[in-house]
């Protein structure tokens, strides 16, 4: 090759566009010297004098630097190696400075364009996260209530195998009579409420997706009045109507699955939801859901003309009961529990007390049947 020994040789990965090439182009190495521009590859070597060189940026997205022989319009060499614009063989020649300056500008424009695009993408991602809750809720609303009921029924069956239920029609009748105004609030949202009592001394209650609620005898035994029991019940039923189980599942699947389900169909969610079983609990017991259930449950009670302060006094009972050993909170059965978020009890009480102070309504006292009901439950 016609290089003189005292010349600085620079190398760049490049592509040559040449009519003699079978595919019209090939990749190879570009060398510059103080005299020559030289493209070397296995297929072809192409050399021209640096005096005939023109330099410009261009190509797809203006990402490349083109080196052309001004006498051969249909031939060009291009590289994405931008360091060529600092090549001394080129910069040392004053008449290239304008072309090099122009090429740098074009490449910078591309950079600004890329950064703008990245910025837009970042804003989009942030908005998706901010909108996530709304999308989760929107998606949950597309899931038929029937699915929730089916999953709830499955869970219920497994609970019947693990626990002893109280089967006493007259007790159920007494309870349902007192709770009727509350049930009506939930039935407005298309849910049918069924409350069951199981023999378990743990102070607990939990709702299954679809509307079944399980109350432990331990909760009835520790409560002082109907208002406290219904306070817990209002909270549990709010988990049902606010669809915390399915929303928990969707949250857990992740944002991109949500997006694809939002754009496509929701049937893929059905399988996931149905197979989660007991794991539903940890998903539906987020702090945000608990607060929402307190809030919504409270409103149900107010609308049902039941004094919601029972929820506060029952929280205080739980707090007193479980304060010394938080370990005793662990429940072994399906974990959709009222208690599993115990550590936030203090905060939740404080929030509800604020709501209580804003109440202007006075409430009808509930029937005087609680003590009798409680004794009968204890005897079962
Ligand atoms: Zn809860």
In short:
With 380 residues, this protein is an alpha+beta fold.
Overview of the structural elements:
The protein has 14 helices and 10 strands. It has 380 residues and is of the alpha+beta class. The chain has helices spanning 88-91, 97-142, 145-162, 169-187, 217-222, 226-241, 244-253, 255-263, 267-276, 280-284, 287-303, 309-322, 345-358, 370-379; strands at residues 10-17, 25-32, 36-40, 45-49, 53-58, 64-69, 76-79, 194-198, 205-207, 212-216. The strands form 2 sheets. Strands 4-3-2-1-7-6-5 form a 7-stranded antiparallel beta sheet. The chain has 2 domains: 10-110, PH-domain like (Roll); 143-379, no CATH class. The longest helix has 46 residues, at 97-142. Zinc ion binds at residues 235, 239, 290, 293, 338.
Number of strands: 10
Largest sheet: 7 strands, antiparallel
Oligomer class: single chain
- Arithmetic mean of pLDDT: 84
